[in-house]
């Protein structure tokens, strides 16, 4: 039975999509039941792999059609689940269940709900298939299913022009990313005549050529598009903003995590290139730029979901930086933050969905005082905001602190400083959201809003509680979940050995170290008091400046455009109430750095051709870098 668990976790979701397509709108209760059973069973099958894989240290393999390797040559498609795969599988499958439960009430007034759930299950199944497969081409197939399902879900509310436009941008830019991955896969297959990850790893060992380096660059950029790393991130703000919040949660929580997993598998297992300083620097630099630009753009937003979209980009920068350090502590921090990002960012998107469900808008300039009418949602939002901002004792503090330490110990002190500044700016932007949406005066049109239904609050509370538990008990999280996954990343010989045999793996793979179990000292709670004092002073100073500056009654306008669709940083609307509006809090900051924001405004111009050109130029730069520095 254990051997069949990976395929069961995947196929259950695909079968659920097929059944929902047959039911259509005939029986809503039956359809919702099928969705809940399919997602829950997938989670259970994934959970059943915990003991043999993480508890006992085994790796589960499954050859489709029983096509096992012949004379050490892989022909069929193999599934292989190790500690890293299961780590991603556990929190991804849990997110799918929570999103499904949230969706039942959230989209009950929408049309085309049967199509929504078919696409929902298809996207979920493809992500599970992606992380459990051991075949390079199957990874491409699954990520392509995921992309097209994501495009359709982005445009789900197709009565809104912005949703259709966002879907078009997603398919245009996403297809470029998919094409890069496919081309790299074709090149590797032409070179080695196999698609099995373990076998390719053996063939590539100490065998870098111009061809394989070309494929490496294409693969990295292709997955960067899927993970929404700067400057391939332009699809994310529109897609996250227009998709239903239950889907935005999955975009942030599982879709980009699949891409993170792809980067890990390609660089650490297939190419074994993370021992090269040039590759480490590439990821660290890329992650640092991503986290900084993401948070500065978030500061400038006045739509709740669009702000969260840029924060999702920023937080994924921490993950890329952590895994780019290629140290035991860095990888642990990167994986911990990947888990935490799924929890706190998914939670925040669900909060935005609750606000939209109750008020019909996520425009921060139109909201205010909702804590009076939606106290549970306000409290849950505060938990999520403190978590993403890295405030102790919430989970974001632990993973960020690990990345601070790891980057400093690896000799990247400037990265540590930037990461600290980004955390401060993250907190500042969520002060803006809290003041604009939940505090201040309640607009008259929202005086009768009510708390969202229980089926929407339960997933939010589960994720909020996990955010708290992940911060209070870091040693349990790392010991029983993250440390085994980090060890699987650093010591991948077993992944190759189980799939292809011991003699195949014995000739290579040096042990990169063992990941630590994070105790309270490593988690930052008992570090030298000076660090905490410095961090606290920075947070307090920025908070006070933001709050005091936000109550200036004057409003300035630096744009004459009536259509503010892409006007993401200037705003001159007059305030209706005395509370701080979404466009008011950082007007001084935005004015002082107006030249930077002018540049960002020009770059985020909404023109698909320019976004596509950005991806192509990124590929060209990465190709040049790889050919020049990677040996």
From TrEMBL:
MF annotations from Gene Ontology: lyase activity; NADH dehydrogenase (ubiquinone) activity; oxidoreductase activity
Enzyme Commission code: 1.-.-.-
Coiled-coil spans in chain: none
Domain of life: Bacteria
Positions of the NADH:quinone oxidoreductase/Mrp antiporter transmembrane domain: 134-426
Gene Ontology annotations for the cellular component aspect, listed alphabetically: plasma membrane
Entry-linked Pfam families: Proton_antipo_M
Location in or out of the cell: Cell membrane; Membrane
Record-annotated membrane-spanning stretches: 6-23, 35-54, 84-104, 116-133, 168-190, 210-229, 250-271, 283-304, 316-336, 342-359, 379-398, 410-433, 454-473, 529-551, 611-630
Enzyme class, first EC level, given as a word: oxidoreductase
Main subcellular location: membrane
BP-aspect Gene Ontology terms: ATP synthesis coupled electron transport
Membrane topology: Multi-pass membrane protein
Alphabetically ordered keywords of this record: Cell membrane, Lyase, Membrane, Oxidoreductase, Transmembrane, Transmembrane helix
InterPro entries noted in UniProt: CPA3_Na-H_Antiporter_D (IPR050586), NADH_UbQ_OxRdtase (IPR003918), ND/Mrp_TM (IPR001750)
Family classification: Belongs to the CPA3 antiporters (TC 2.A.63) subunit D family.
Protein name: Hydrogenase-4 component B / Formate hydrogenlyase subunit 3
Classification of source organism: Bacteria, Bacillati, Bacillota, Clostridia, Eubacteriales
